[in-house]
Design brief:
The complex is a heterodimer of chains A (306) and B (244). Chain A is built from ten helices and 14 strands. Chain A is of the alpha/beta class. Chain B contains nine helices and ten strands. The chains are: A alpha/beta (306), B alpha/beta (244).
Amino acid sequence: MNIIEVNHINKSFGAVRALNDIKFSVKEGEIFGLIGPDGAGKTTLFRLFTTLLLPDKGQIFINNKNVVKHYKEIRHIMGYMPGRFSLYQDLSVEENLQFFATIFQSSIEENYDLIKPIYSQIEDFKKRRAGALSGGMKQKLALSCALIHKPQILVLDEPTTGVDSVSRKEFWEILHQLKEKGITIVVSTPYMDEAGLCDRVALIQKGRILSIDTPLNIEKSFPKHLYAIKTKDMHKLIHDLEKYQYTHSTFPFGQFVHYTDKRNEFNIRDVYDYLEKNSHIQISIDKIKAGIEDCFMELMINQEEK
Amino acid sequence: MKDAERIIKVRKLYKKFGSFTANKDLNFDVYKGEIFGFLGANGAGKTTAMKILCGLSKPTSGEVKIANYDIYTQTNEIKKNIGYMSQKFSLYEDLTIKENIRLFGGIYGLSKSEIEKRGKELIKHLELEGAKDKLIKDIPLGWKQKLAFSIAVLHEPDIVFLDEPTGGVDPITRRQFWKLIYEAAGKGVTIFVTTHYMDEAEYCNRLSIMVDGEIVALDDPLSLIKQYKSSNMDEVFLKLVRKI
């Protein structure tokens, strides 16, 4: 069953078209990811379906209810963790949690089980002012506050931005535990590698959705043969591949350069010969499967060409 | 790299806040034209160390030299010879591109004619001719970051500090940004960079990884990957930070 339906949403701020004909749905109990850079429209979209903004055009339904008409009900079944820390800095950890429980006519005790795995990690600091917490602890408190009224849907706007890769992994483990408890999760992130941790993702760029599917299907739909190339001099390699007449795309990926060819039919030996002719040594070329980041960039190139 | 000119020298650096030791016995050198990655989990002590290296905070003890200037007595010289860029603070949003160039050029003591000349080159290089009179707040994040970097090296500093410079931008812009970094390094500017993107860590010539205030690993990326029997830097980082 679809718990969220977004139908042809448009939203502009002055001359800026933040969202352009956005359409997707989220199934009950899944982790749905919105993957895209800053300025793609992720936050605007979140504000629309958390009832904080009105669309110019189109409708959003949650549990088959129009969010504009039924905003009061919708707010009760949603937990929202905004991108910017927005708890009360001058209240203590415990007071913040109590405050959010109270406005939803609940109490910390009533839903303690749900937040326990997260809240127990900061409970030792419950008398400390929220403003004096470290970044990681603030994040855990914000998540606890978003969950304290036991929402059906949890909406997280870039919860892992600026967080180191180990803490990011730990945060995703928490999200998977919440999913096990039946909570539907909609999460946005600029980190392409987090797409694989979602059940389905929408890739979004400049207010438009580039693709929606499971991460695996998106990767499978990569339209080109993809190669990871490495030689001794990586800077020269990037430079030489950019000049090569048959290059469709060439992007550095850590120790490798990912390469696609303009031609549909070709022998990769051509590329090898070209590099050898340009005095590269220790050349290795391997055919690889595309990741989400490869797909995102390919879709971006196609969009620019349109 | 041993014979190359040393730009950063750090010996037995300690920084304490009360009973908390934020930096514990840091020792490293960074050389001219090198891209040095400064990695660590949130709270590991990276920002504290960066502030010291930029001359904004004094160590509790230890020796630190930046471009041969002493961190205790010559902070003004240090500030003139470094560039700094972070994701949070970079440019003035209510000034235009041209005005930001003039402001920062002036702060770093460039003459009017130098600012004019280098500013023109910069705008041409970034292909911003059509946008030079736009306010910073009206240009896309990717442009802002490339511009902020170019302005941070406008006065041709010995070293530029980049604090998570690529957060939030799209993957193509992120790679264009690294191209600017390579170009600057090629001209001899030393790059000192922090990032949470582990593929970017692999673009560095050498890396240090901090855990709980200490540098627990320092080498080139391939050697680290080999040493920790990993297939990429993400695994190395995970092993060191989780202490597996």
